[in-house]
């Protein structure tokens, strides 16, 4: 079986500065795959390139075997690839419901959309309670829930989450992480970018460690969690 | 007839024109953070487009009641084509370039459009007579309303209401809001932001053409350089109301129109300011108002403070 997503020798440059220097990895359907690493390692750039917001300077991206390289950003979501960006990027002056509706922008099935909005409210009850509120008034954790819920509205085959735990309280983070596991059990494939390596690795099937634009180490989540160099560099042990 | 109600009415008529033009500045700025300084000329070409329809397309002696809708369509078409063409061929290639580049392009485009009309439109080197509606003026108490003023006082609210409904209720309108708030994320939703930008230019262009027809009807003539002053005032109105906000553009237009009209009629009655009244000073008062608003409420009358985009 071919992988859902195949990335091969991907390079991305901002002008002359190469942010991603030739990485390769695959995501199998049904898995949680995580990219971990410090700030500036190229994780966010990788996701933004997969979404078409940056153009790669080299390499191949295959989604369900089809090349993504020349697909414009606004056509990527239609293929089944949704992206919850770093920093949440909800639409602050639209209501929660309107944000969720935008997540389903390309869908035509009104009833299905209504049902999925309800599903997002079931998943995150706080969003349902505040559905008419402007999204900009939500707390950071609530905005993160909204960003995730919005990404799910396109019924993606692959959900890409960029730093979903950033700036969240430990309780909120628990909530987000358990939601990710729940989504996986419902059949969504997830590509998770995290600085919180402990949390990400403990639920990932596969993990890749990125450093300054390269993947320096790959393995199952459990392997990496117990790898000595990872523990030293990312889990704060000496 | 220089009564206060009449002056207020005149201010509203003038302000409605400013507001219609200001929509074009504010929508484009709200979505691509570009001040389209050629918008005044898009307004002007709308006027000449409408005149062309009247002079060269419609048979001689067509009643204005039939001609007016045709002129609006023709003028609108010209303005929309020029606005969309400017976006496609002048601004889009410069997206992502330093801000100064599209700004200078806009000024160049503005001069080019003026000169094109000046040199190539028949007899456009001086004022060209604009057809008039042969009706009115009507009287409402002490207020006299000419047919051109009646046109703008109906057209402006109709356009604004249509735009408000469009932005709030239509799918494209929702996509416009999303694009204005966060263009990258809008693309992640599947919104073709290039198309949304074109729609913003097109709506701005059409509204400018409506304003140009109103201008021609009220003043009786149009001229190749009429876009400069009106464009500058409408831009002021957009900033006054809060640039990027469509309600702000209309409110800013009305406030500016009223302030200008009232200042020119009444300031010279203030002791010691006798020399500062009259039409010659109207622009001075308009820009004094702008400076005051920028000093005390830089986000504009109804604008929000631009929050950091984290």
Write the layout of secondary structure elements.
The complex is a heterodimer of chains A (238) and B (310).
Chain A: E1 5-14, E2 17-27, E3 32-36, H1 43-50, E4 58-63, E5 66-67, H2 73-79, E6 81-84, H3 96-103, H4 110-123, H5 125-129, H6 140-152, E7 158-162, H7 170-185, E8 189-194, H8 197-203, E9 206-211, E10 214-220, H9 221-226, H10 228-234
Parallel strand pairs in A: 3-8, 3-9, 6-7, 7-8
Antiparallel strand pairs in A: 1-2, 1-4, 4-5, 9-10
Helix pairs in contact in A: 3-6, 4-6
Chain B: H1 4-32, H2 39-57, H3 64-91, H4 100-120, E1 128-129, E2 138-140, E3 143-145, H5 147-169, H6 171-181, H7 183-188, H8 193-219, E4 221-222, H9 226-241, H10 246-266, H11 282-296
Antiparallel strand pairs in B: 1-4, 2-3
Helix pairs in contact in B: 1-5, 1-8, 1-9, 1-10, 2-3, 2-4, 2-8, 2-9, 3-8, 5-6, 5-8, 6-8, 9-10, 9-11, 10-11
Structural commentary:
The complex is a heterodimer of chains A (238) and B (310). Chain A has ten helices and ten strands. Chain A is of the alpha/beta class. In chain A, strand 4 (58-63) and strand 5 form a beta hairpin. In chain A, helix 3 (96-103) packs parallel to helix 6 and helix 4 packs antiparallel against helix 6. The mean pLDDT of chain A is 92. Chain B is mainly alpha-helical. Chain B has a single domain, classed as ABC transporter involved in vitamin B12 uptake, BtuC (Orthogonal Bundle), CATH 1.10.3470. Chain B is built from eleven helices and four strands, in the order ααααβββααααβααα. In chain B, strands 1-4 form a two-stranded antiparallel ribbon. The chains are: A alpha/beta (238), B mainly alpha (310). At the A-B interface, helix 2 and helix 3 of A face helix 6 and helix 7 of B.
Strand content of chain A: 25-35%
Termini separation of chain A: 41 Å
Shape of chain A: globular
Low-confidence stretches of chain B: 306-310
Please compute the radius of gyration of chain A using only Cα atoms: 17 Å
Distance between the termini of chain B: 55 Å
With strands numbered from the N-terminus, the spatial order across the biggest sheet of chain B is 1-4
**Assembly classification:** heterodimer
- What structural class do helix, strand and pairing data of chain A support? alpha/beta
Main pleated-sheet profile of chain B: 2 strands, antiparallel
Tell me the helix content of chain B: 55-70%
